[in-house]
Specification:
This protein has one domain: Electron Transport, Fmn-binding Protein, Chain A (Pnp Oxidase, Chain A), CATH 2.30.110.10. It is α+β, with helices and mostly antiparallel strands and about 190 residues long. It contains 6 helices and 9 strands; from the N terminus they run βαββββαβααβααββ.
């Protein structure tokens, strides 16, 4: 990672995974890349997602032993300055560089994981994967999970990615408009 001052720890990366509504999985197959947005849930150090039992994804995943997944958390344009402060910055060439660093920018958080991609074949882990996905995306419907699992388990594939590597990065400003570097949280 080039910007070590924005690097965040593993726990921060796991939090991004847990709140992200989707992740983009990429895999290399026969000198080509394949990327697809997926609804992904985490259980411990394993990511789970489901798919149909046939199709392009299934074919690609058969031949893709390693996956990379990108997750993006919060992203926003910071509002660190009043209109008066912006006019003052714009009128002074020495202060104008602050426009680039602190105005024409975004706050963001992201993480990237890498690990082996595998079709889950063991029934207990299939259920764990389905449960993780449903608890993340439909938590208010979990009273109906067991019956839905029984009706649908044989209709979907569950895939797992065991997290072997995780990197997380963040750009965020505090209330005074200063960037919070080196994992500073407050």
């Amino acid at each position: 990672m080039r910007r070590k001052d924005r690097e965040m720890g593993k726990e921060f990366g796991l939090q991004i995974i847990d709140k992200a509504r989707f992740g983009v999985l990429s895999a290399a197959v026969e000198k080509e890349s394949y990327s697809i947005p997926l609804s992904i849930a985490r259980s411990g150090e394993t990511l789970y997602f489901h798919s149909a039992m046939e199709g392009t994804k299934v074919e690609v995943f058969r031949n893709a032993p390693i996956a990379t997944v990108v997750f993006v958390g919060d992203v926003k344009v910071p509002e660190n300055f009043s209109e008066e402060e912006l006019r003052e910055m714009a009128s002074d060439e020495k202060k104008a560089v602050e426009l680039i660093r602190k105005v024409f920018t975004t706050e963001y958080e992201s993480c990237i994981i890498k690990g082996p991609l595998r079709l889950v074949k063991e029934k207990g882990e299939e259920e764990e994967g389905h449960r993780a996905i449903c608890e993340k995306f439909t938590p208010s419907k979990m009273d109906y999970f067991d019956i839905a699992l029984k009706a649908g388990l044989h209709r979907t594939n569950i895939y797992a990615i065991d997290i072997e590597e995780i990197t997380a990065k963040r750009k965020k400003y505090d209330a005074s408009g200063e960037e919070m570097k080196f994992q500073r949280m407050l």
